[in-house]
Amino acid sequence: MVKNKKILSLIMTTALMMGTLAGCSGGSKDAATSSSSGGDKTITVWSHMTSESEFPKLQELVEKWGKDKGVKVNCVDDKGKIQEYMQAANSSSAPDIMIGIPHDNLGTFQKAGLIAEVPSGLLDPSKYTSKGPIDAVTIGGKQYGVPYAQETVSLFINKDKVKEVPKSFEELVTKAKEPGVGFSYSVNALFYNLGFLTTQGGYVFKNNNGTLDPNDIGLSNEGAIKGLQFIQDLVIKDKLLAPDTTDDIAKNRFMSGDAAFYISGAWDTASAKAANINYEIAAMPTFGGKNVTTALGVQTAFVAEKSPNKDIAWDLMKYIQDNINPIIIDSGRIPVTKEGVESDAFKANKDMIAFAEQAKYAVPMPNIPEMQAVWTPAGNMLTAMTAGQQDPKTTGEEIVKQIKEGIAQQ
């Protein structure tokens, strides 16, 4: 789930600061080294793919490649903490390939010198649904991971309460005010609000041709303030949301039928089905006449910088890239390639089509370590703003001020 990514990033940043690059503990270490004896080449793949259906299929895929190439492949379903990669990276237990890593962790790995740059020509921008997946793995103008799945938020709609999908958020607000309609989402969480802040020209860190500048923060500019004003109005002026609306509260309002409109991700489709809600999912309505640039999360794979088998590992990586779509489509993920989202298998899942459409406009969450200084001040200041304790302009200025202070302490 995307909203857990910032937690994973924080774990890895902490692990990096520990500086204890010891051997990987527990079962993962044993599994990663058990087949490395002898003179034959062995490629070790650690999988952090979270769906239970994905690992067996990934294992079958990479072992087929190995059989065809005459290379032994050791595929490990790594159930340990993600920071074990940080600990194992400089040891003999390190994998050659890691798969299932949220893209916003790549900056921490790259800064520590743990991941290899993607060879020229492996990533073809013309094959992707948007520039977002490539941007997600780009650090300092260079690519350090291979994207394979993406996720963002869209609009859930209770069809028993609303017959037509609103074309704009302005129209949605008007409709939501009608008796028995309602609108809900996690109003103080930056992840769900980023689209409102960035659509009109705000940004977290300025992207200068593939290089994010942590010294240029755009969360207090005119565009961001427009978004903050809209968020505050939803609570104070329009009275559509309580100021303390969390993930769980927002979800419960939609699943109980109390709110007809709900912003969330694909992780909530199963709950909507279980609640017997007559729902549909649509790409986000426009905001201020523009498509909403929601936050994009991208699942990635990478090759370890210190792998002794880089050439073979990249050959396997290309094979994974070319053949992974059926695996992720079957587990309910959105492929990053046009071929994937245009396949009959993907189109058979109508819920995912809407998320794929919204993903075209989504902007990747920043992948540099400085992003860790963003989440807490943004959440705190949004909470103060929706409680009516400060205006949007002050909120934006305080967010930027506290982010800069946090970065200085990293």
TrEMBL record:
Any one Gene Ontology cellular component term annotated for this protein: ATP-binding cassette (ABC) transporter complex, substrate-binding subunit-containing
Keyword Nucleotide-binding: no
Any matching Pfam family: SBP_bac_8
Region forming the signal peptide: 1-22
Localization: Cell membrane
Membrane topology: Lipid-anchor
Entry's transmembrane regions: none
Single Gene Ontology MF annotation: maltose binding
GO biological-process terms attached to the record: maltodextrin transmembrane transport; maltose transport
InterPro entries: Maltose/Cyclodextrin-bd (IPR006060), SBP (IPR006059)
UniProt keyword annotations, A-Z: Cell membrane, Lipoprotein, Membrane, Signal, Sugar transport, Transport
Classification via PANTHER family: MALTOSE-BINDING PERIPLASMIC PROTEIN (PTHR30061), MALTOSE_MALTODEXTRIN-BINDING PERIPLASMIC PROTEIN (PTHR30061:SF50)
Family: Belongs to the bacterial solute-binding protein 1 family.
Protein name: Maltodextrin-binding protein
Organism the protein comes from: Clostridium chromiireducens
